Amino acid sequence: MSDSTFDADGITLEKVREYVWEIPQEGEMNTPARVLASEVLLEEIKEDKTLQQLKNTTHLPGITKHAICMPDGHQGYGFPVGGVGALDAENGCISPGAVGYDINCGVRMMKTNLTYDDLKGRETELVDSLFANVPSGLGGGGIVESGIDTVDEILARGVDWALENGYAVEDDLRHCEDEGHRAEADSSKISQKAKDRGKNQIGSLGSGNHFLEVQRVTDVFHDEVGSAYGLEEDQIVVLIHCGSRGLGHQTCNDYLRKIEKQHQGLLNTLPDKELAAAPAGSQLAEDYYGAMNAAINFAWVNRQLIMHRTREVFERVFDRSWEDMEMDLLYDVAHNIAKKEVHDVDGEERELYVHRKGATRAFPAGHPEVPKAYRDVGQPVIIPGSMGTGSYVLRGGENSMELTFGSTAHGAGRLMSRTQAKSEYWGGDVQQELEEQDQIYVKAQSGATVAEEAPGVYKDVDEVVRISDELGIGDKVARTFPVCNIKG
C-alpha cells in the first residue's frame, strides 16, 4: 500500500484526490467505481463485502460516470448501503435491489420553540407518552387502520391525502421532498398482498433501526443557513426515521421475483443475482417505477401520521397547542429511492434513474427542485447518528451535482451485524448507561432492539459528516444530541 493506493483484500483503490478513491474499470465493468471516505473509514468499509458489491454494480447496463459509495457505506442486499448508481433511463435499467426493501425509508425533522430547559424533568413522562401513542415494533398496528380503498388513495395521493383528512397542514407539504407526492405513482401495480400488509401499519415506526427521537440542538455551524432553517442552539427538535413498512418490503420482493422470471437474460450477465434489474422501457421497468412511487407516497404519509401523533403527545405533556410550540416541519427527505432526474454527463444532459440506497439527495442552492423556502441556501439534508451520539443537519453542497449526482450520506452506517451486536451488548445495560451517563431516555419493545442499535454498532457519524463537508457534497449546518428515543 502506498499513499496513492489502498488495498482491500484483492481490490485495489487508487486515490483520485483527498477522500476520493477509485476502483479502476476492468473486465466486464461498464464504469469505474468510487468510494468517498477517509482511510479511517476505508479500514471499516473493507471489513465486509461493500467494495465487491460496489464493483458488481458497475456491471448494470447503462450505468454512467461511476458507481459511488458514500462515507457511511456498508454491505447490503446486492447493492451496498450508502450506494449511488445513475442508470440511463432509455438504454439502462432500474433495479429494485439498488433501491432496497424499505422503499422511501427516510427521515423528517420537526422543529419546536421549546428549549432543553423546558423539557428537563419531563423526559420520562414524554418518552412514556410517545411510546404509548406511536405504534412501533414488528407486525401490525398503526395510527390509521383502514380498508384497501384508503390504502389505494394514500398510494396515489401521498401527503395530500393526509392534508384532506386532517393529519397535515399546507406548510407540511411545502417542506417535504416533492411536496410529499410522486405523480408517477400507480397503485394498481402494488400487489394485494402488499396492500394487505400495509393497511394496518399506516402511522407506525416498525422495528430495526427505525426510531422517533427528541433531540436538542447543540451546535449551529452556519448562522445564515441555520437561520433559514429555523435552527438555534438549545432548541428542541424531533427526528422521525422510518419507511414504507411491510408494503414496501412486499413490493420489492414481488418485483425481484418477476424480474427473475421475465428478464433471466439480463440477470445472467450480472455478477450477483441480487442486482436483478428490469431493462429501461420494458413493461416491468414501468410497472416497478409506478409501484415504487406509490410505496414512496405511502412512506411519506406514514411519517406524516407519526408527526401528527407526536404533535398531539407534546400538546398533552406541555399543555399547549402544537401551533403555540411552533412544531413545524423542517424537512422530510428519502434515502432509499430511485428517481428519474436530468444530470450533466460529460457535457450532455441525460435523463437517468438515480438510485440512492442509504444515500440522501443533497441538491445545492439554486436548484429548481429545492423547495422555495430553502432555494437560496440549499436543500436540507438530515443525517441521523446512533442513539448515543447525535445527528446532523447539512445542506446540499455545491460539489454534489458534479461528484455524486446530487447525493450525500444517510447516517452513521453500521459496523456490526445485528447478530454480533446482540452477542456483544445487553439491552438493559445500554439503556441504563445512556440514561446515567448522557441523560438519554430510551424506550423500546425489547432489550434485543436496544442491543442491536447500541452506539458501538455504528461508524463515527462525526467522521462521516466531516468527509461530506470537506468534499462539498453536504455542508454542516447544525448538530443535535438525543434526549428521548423510542424504538421498535
Automatic annotation (TrEMBL):
Functional note: Essential for tRNA splicing and maturation. Acts by directly joining spliced tRNA halves to mature-sized tRNAs. Joins RNA with 2',3'-cyclic-phosphate or 3'-phosphate ends to RNA with 5'-hydroxy ends.
Region (Disordered): 178-204
One GO-annotated biological process of the protein: tRNA splicing, via endonucleolytic cleavage and ligation
Positions bound to Mn(2+) 2: 241, 335
Name by which UniProt lists this protein: tRNA-splicing ligase RtcB
Keyword Ligase: yes
Enzyme Commission number, as recorded: 6.5.1.-
Organism of derivation: Natronorubrum aibiense
The UniProt record lists the keyword Ligase: yes
Keywords, ordered alphabetically: GTP-binding, Ligase, Manganese, Metal-binding, Nucleotide-binding
Basic and acidic residues: compositionally biased ranges: 178-199
Reactions that this protein is recorded to catalyse: a 3'-end 3'-phospho-ribonucleotide-RNA + a 5'-end dephospho-ribonucleoside-RNA + GTP = a ribonucleotidyl-ribonucleotide-RNA + GMP + diphosphate; a 3'-end 2',3'-cyclophospho-ribonucleotide-RNA + a 5'-end dephospho-ribonucleoside-RNA + GTP + H2O = a ribonucleotidyl-ribonucleotide-RNA + GMP + diphosphate + H(+)
Recorded name of the encoding gene: rtcB
Superkingdom assignment: Archaea
